[in-house]
Amino acid sequence: MPRPSTHHFLQKKTEVDESEKTLTFKTSKPSSSPSVQSSNALFLGLPGSPYITIAQNTAERLNMEFHHITTPQMLSALKEKTNLSLAVAGTIGLDDEDVRKTLTHIGKIFYIMADVSTLLSGHSQESLSPNKSNMLREQLAKTLLEVEPYCLQISRFILRPDAPYGEIAMDVDEKMRL
Q: What pTM did the predictor assign?
């Protein structure tokens, strides 16, 4: 899907009085070692969202090491490593402030924001009875209500799971350069 047009953002054209003047901005000196945060990508999502696939694809595309994180202990073991693409389960314990601080220290957090229908479609439902399917929908809705505020609180970027893969990849690559 193409990005929306932004041509309507410019409402008024203004002439510049002193067009010959220039400004020079001083660049900062690069630090001797890059911060851990600048080189790691964390993809946060709930079960049923494609956060694992996006993290794996990013790892392959950017030549990063991939890990699927499901516990705070797994997260702590990786907190000083660099060049990682981490798929972080939203059910990792985001209600714990220490877990949230560790996540924000480790890298740039991308939240894969999915609604209940998208989460449900990410689960295999062929063998589920209508009753069990409804129970799964209710459980996903409850989990989403509990976890999403924390996801939004710590995320630096939000990705749509329904966007084409190429668009997601371009978005991630651009944001990783920031």
A: 0.77
